[in-house]
Design goal:
The complex is a heterodimer of chains A (360) and B (668).
Chain A: H1 8-27, H2 40-73, H3 91-119, E1 127-134, E2 137-142, E3 153-156, E4 158-162, E5 167-173, E6 178-180, E7 189-191, E8 197-201, E9 207-212, E10 225-231, H4 233-243, H5 257-265, E11 305-306, E12 311-312, H6 317-329, H7 346-356
Chain B: H1 36-39, H2 43-72, H3 82-116, H4 125-147, H5 172-200, H6 213-245, H7 259-292, H8 299-312, H9 328-340, H10 342-356, H11 365-388, H12 390-396, H13 400-430, H14 436-462, H15 479-505, H16 546-551, E1 552-554, E2 560-562, H17 593-609, H18 612-631, H19 646-649
Helix pairs in contact in B: 2-3, 2-4, 2-15, 3-4, 3-5, 3-7, 3-13, 4-5, 4-17, 5-6, 5-17, 6-7, 6-8, 7-10, 7-11, 7-13, 8-10, 10-11, 11-13, 11-14, 13-14, 14-15, 17-18
Chain lengths: 360, 668
């Protein structure tokens, strides 16, 4: 440490580089950026954070500035044997300094506590969806209600919501604690087994929003991702209508019939439900945490991702085939995946794929 | 303070039977040589053993950190698989909290509290040895998991029900729970011991409000341990019963509520943060005045704020659970308490600044680490304030922003204070001076490394990167800062390596200077390294910063001047003077029993996991150990200590004296 930097330009260059790096990082594509809100709920949180962060930065500058000043200004010079004034403290100064944090914290409290109550204030007459975290995917149950006339249904990993509307999420867990988080739409809320709490979500723009499980839930925690798809009311209604349709058993003469049979013989149906076709198992664990529970594959092809949203289901046929077949070859390609499947021949994989693509 | 050493009941005279309790062991005599370390009850040796073993664990925990950072340096990292990664981060957190910071602070507390308060030893020397052995055996037991079938994989926070046998079938979490119960026993016993020592063993004249700040902060931390550890111990027992005996404390199917674990864990876990950081604050509060050449600014405010933090620390735990859905009223209440714990913390920062202000600052390595703590802890404290805002904390909790926050607190706070203490007290402990040149490299690399590693994590967290992720995809904007952070971690590793090198290259850099920094407290009034008896005669204390006042006086011109050397009386023979005749002082005798009694713990632990027969062996060891211990006089009648208590009780100054009256009293 030197009292005065010998090369002031070096310090300035370093500072500028630092600032540029920080700004550069913020500007990059970060689909889970909490400071890039896409809903009034997340916006409120970002504003709160920015306000407190500003206050903290001010305190930071003052404290570190004083510290730096003291460190430079009050260095003992060589040969200086005199003692500084032996002050033991100064009650007046100390009281003033005590008042500083008290005032700052009181202001922060006044401006922030209200939001806690707003967060838990969920209107009654809104769309309700039950979110169930299960190792390692998300189940979304849309019960019969004003917005979902014509039958309830359950889907996986992708939560569809109508744009602009507050949606009431009932948070549940089928096994351990998870945490549902789509950062651009709202903060996170844990799903705790044996408990149910309510959380809300909202999007002010049409689009797809990334998110993931935020509470450590086991080996595959990092791969328990999710998406929220905000649609116009018409698109949402159309999606609801399609989800309410059962799948049908393919004709014995069709290309997908062999795969349909394999789904049974390879015991896929022992864990996965396909409404109207294979209904042996519930989608949500209703008894013991070890009971099978795997994503509902009804209307699988309507989704954009699978395997805890770690694999894409693109429009492009070749890419989609590639992703799905790779998964069927080795479900353990996702670390900690709970899917077990006996090794399949390439023919069987092709057959299963031929069946799965009919689930639209 | 006359409550000590009046325990003649067990002091037998030479010739009495019972000198070899149970007839098993010959009572150890040696206080030098490698064997003596296993039987020593000397608080200094025990302190050194605590320090050395925690530094070994620090290296292990650091290697785990490097593995984590290697895995996360690039997206889709393939250094570790997900399962191993989870074990590594669980071990990293557990090691750093329970096997590094707690014991290294126990090392300083053990070594320096008795000397700083003018005592011969701690109140219960054999219990002290027992604490150490229980700690090291607990730590080794925990690490046995890695050898025997897999490390713990539920995180250091071990949230139920993910830690149930169903979801964590290996013995890892069993080793974790049992190992932490053992280290918990160690810390509880240690806390009782040090509290009694602080309250009852102070030299005459050392009132509570003349105790050095380090002693005060350690005392507060020991009280926190005493009240917080039982809570985690209960939680660990519940977990152990769930896992080993099919109990249902956290079994949701049977109606359990897994949030019970979170409450128990964090009622312990938050005071734990202050357990880890308050003693470091104490160290810094000793170091800064010495190197600023002026007294601590606001001693009383420092003490009071430490006590306030201790009390308030028990009332903020729910801020770890803001996302769990407890309801707005409790969230708002704990949001408020969390905000206002910033007030006493702020007081400490201001008082350090006040001490630096208008001082004559010398930047030796201890001072650099101390100022480093002030600057880094400020960042950790301020990011803590942003968490107190519960609503927006739902965005930050469980992200890298939190990881950044608590590493600024525990690395920038606790560890920087610990290294300040290492450099500051090294000459006193070992009679060797660490190299200033290497030390400055150590400081700067560690300071830069810490900011490089933990600074970018703030940005990562705000960009939505959750913590405890075995890997991350590349298109989320997290690549650059993860790489920077990983590079920073290697800088920290190099800096720690420099510390190790420093210790090695200065091993012959002997100093006999008892007071190299011109210290203020009593440890600098005795020889370096501290002689086994600490003090020739019990000191009489009349001032805060007693040693400083013995060295300096206000001269006729109103200026502070150093007394002539022949008027400054050290409290033990220093340099070439003849050593104290150990036969004239009262020293607790070495004993095998603490080690034997502590050995019972891992036997019981292994027994619970593999075969109950081992529990029987452990039980017998425990009972036998306690029996032998109870029948063994604390002072070996054949130790060569002659019965007249020469210098120890020589002046007969009545009930007020626990030892010799110091002939050279403190100047008025």
């Amino acid at each position: 440490m030197t009292a005065t930097p010998r090369r002031p330009w070096l310090v300035r260059a370093a500072l500028l580089t630092g600032v540029a790096l920080v700004l550069g990082a913020c500007a990059s594509n970060a689909p889970q950026d909490t400071l890039d809100p896409a809903s009034p709920l997340a916006d409120e949180l970002a504003n709160l954070f920015n306000g407190v962060f500003l206050a903290a930065t001010a305190v930071f500058v003052v404290v570190e500035g004083l510290l730096l000043y003291a460190v430079i200004r009050f260095r003992r010079r060589a040969g200086d044997e005199a003692f500084p004034e032996q002050t033991h403290g100064n009650p007046k100064t100390e009281l003033v300094l005590l008042a500083g944090p008290v005032i700052i914290m009181t202001i922060v409290a006044i401006f922030s506590l209200g939001t806690i109550f707003q967060q838990s204030d969920i209107p009654d007459d809104v769309l309700k969806v039950t979110v169930t975290g299960q190792k390692y995917w998300w189940a979304y149950s849309y019960p019969e209600q004003a917005d979902i006339e014509g039958g309830s249904f359950i889907t996986a990993n992708e939560l569809h919501i109508p744009v602009g509307q507050v949606v009431d999420l009932e948070m549940r867990s089928g096994d351990v604690i998870h945490s549902f988080w789509a950062p651009r739409l709202n903060g996170k809320r844990d799903t705790v087994p044996g408990r149910s709490t309510n959380w809300k979500i909202q999007s002010s723009e049409v689009g797809t929003f990334e998110g993931q499980c935020a509470e450590f839930c086991g080996t595959s925690h990092a791969y328990m991702r999710l998406r929220v798809i905000a649609q116009t009311q018409e698109d949402f209604d159309a999606w609801v209508a399609s989800q309410q349709q059962d799948q049908v058993v393919p004709a014995a003469t069709s290309d997908s019939y062999a795969g349909y049979q394999l789904f049974q013989t390879k015991n896929c149906a022992g864990c996965h439900r396909i409404d109207g076709v294979y209904e042996d198992v519930p989608v949500i664990r209703d008894s013991t945490p070890t009971a099978p529970s795997s994503p509902n594959l009804t209307h699988l092809m309507d989704r954009t991702c699978f395997a805890g949203c770690t694999r894409e289901l693109p429009e492009d046929e070749a890419a989609r085939r590639n992703n799905l077949e790779a998964w069927l070859r080795d479900p353990q390609g996702k670390p900690g995946s709970l899917m077990v499947i006996a090794p399949l021949s390439e023919q069987e994989i092709d057959d299963l794929y031929a069946y799965l693509v009919t689930l639209d | 303070m006359a409550l000590t050493e009046e325990r003649p009941m067990l002091e037998l005279s030479p010739g009495d039977e019972l000198t070899q309790p149970l007839g098993v062991f010959r009572r150890p005599r040696a206080i030098v040589g490698w064997r003596s370390w296993f039987t020593s009850v000397d608080h200094k040796k025990i302190g050194i053993m605590y320090g050395a073993s925690s530094m070994v664990f620090f290296a292990i925990g650091g290697l785990e950190a490097l593995l984590i950072r290697a895995q996360l340096a690039r997206p889709d990292g393939e250094v570790l698989n997900a399962d191993t990664y989870n074990q590594v981060f669980t071990l990293h957190g557990t090691t750093m909290v329970f096997l590094v910071i707690i014991p290294v602070l126990a090392a300083f507390a053990n070594y320096f509290i008795p000397i700083m308060i003018g005592a011969r030893d701690v109140a219960f020397p054999r219990m002290n040895a027992y604490s150490f052995w229980a700690f090291i055996l607990g730590g080794l037991f925990l690490y046995c998991s890695v050898i025997f079938g897999g490390g713990p994989d539920g995180g250091w926070f071990a949230y139920a029900p993910n830690t149930s046998v169903t979801w964590s079938p290996s013995h890892g979490m069993d080793y974790w729970a049992l190992g932490l119960i053992m280290t918990g026993v160690a810390s509880t016993v240690g806390a009782v011991n040090l509290i009694v020592t602080c309250l009852n063993m102070r030299a005459p004249g050392m009132t509570l409000l003349k105790m050095p700040v380090f002693v005060w902060m350690s005392l507060v931390a020991q009280f926190l341990l005493l009240f917080a550890l039982p809570v985690i111990t209960v939680a660990l027992f519940l977990l152990m019963f769930d896992r080993l005996f099919d109990a249902n404390f956290f079994n949701v199917e049977q109606g359990a509520d897994p949030l019970l674990w979170q409450h128990l864990f964090w009622i312990f876990g938050h005071p734990e943060v202050y357990i880890l950081v308050l003693p470091s604050f104490g160290i810094v509060s000793e170091v800064i005045p010495v190197f600023a050449r002026k007294p601590l600014f606001g001693y009383y405010a420092m003490i009071l704020s430490g006590i306030a933090i201790g009390f308030m620390g028990f009332g903020v735990w729910v801020h770890h659970m803001f996302a769990s859905g407890l309801g707005p009223v409790s969230v708002a209440a704990f949001s408020l308490t969390t905000m206002f714990i910033a007030v006493p913390t702020g007081v400490k920062i201001f008082n350090w600044l006040g001490t630096l202000w208008q001082g004559k600052l010398t930047f030796s390595v201890p001072m650099m680490f101390a100022v480093g703590l002030v600057s880094l802890f400020t960042i950790g404290g301020l990011s803590g304030v942003t968490h107190a805002v519960a609503a927006s904390d739902t965005q930050q909790t469980d992200t890298y922003y939190i990881v950044a926050h608590f590493h600024y607190v525990l690395f920038g706070g606790s560890m920087f204070g610990i290294f300040a203490g290492m450099y500051y007290w090294w000459p006193k402990i070992f009679g060797r001076l660490l190299s200033e040149r290497i030390g400055k490299w150590h400081f700067w690399l560690m300071f830069i490394g810490a900011n490089l590693t933990f600074g970018p994590m703030h940005i990562l967290g705000m960009q939505g990167m959750p913590r405890r992720q075995a890997s991350y995809p590349s298109d989320y904007g997290w690549d650059v800062w993860n790489l920077v952070s990983s590079i920073g971690s290697t800088v920290i590793a190099v800096s720690f390596l420099l510390f190790v090198i420093n210790v090695w290259v200065t091993r012959k850099n002997v100093t006999t200077d008892p007071d190299p920094w011109d210290g203020r407290t009593l440890e600098w009034a005795v020889a370096s390294p501290t002689p086994v008896q600490n003090f020739t005669a019990e000191p009489r204390v009349s001032h805060l910063d007693e040693w400083w006042h013995r060295k300096y006086e206000v001269g006729a011109d109103g200026q502070l001047t150093r007394r002539p050397d022949d008027q400054i009386a050290y409290l033990t023979p220093v340099r070439d003077e003849a050593p104290t005749d150990l036969a004239t002082v009262h020293l607790p005798s070495p004993s095998y029993w603490p080690l034997v009694t502590a050995l019972a713990l891992p036997f019981i632990g292994f027994g619970l996991l593999y075969t109950y027969w081992l529990c029987l062996v452990g039980g017998l060891l425990l009972i036998g150990g306690i029996y032998g211990w109870a029948l063994e006089p604390s002072l070996d009648p054949a130790s060569g200590h002659h019965g007249d208590h020469g210098a120890d009780h020589g002046d007969g100054s009545g009930a007020d004296s626990t030892g010799a009256a110091e002939t050279v009293g403190a100047p008025a």
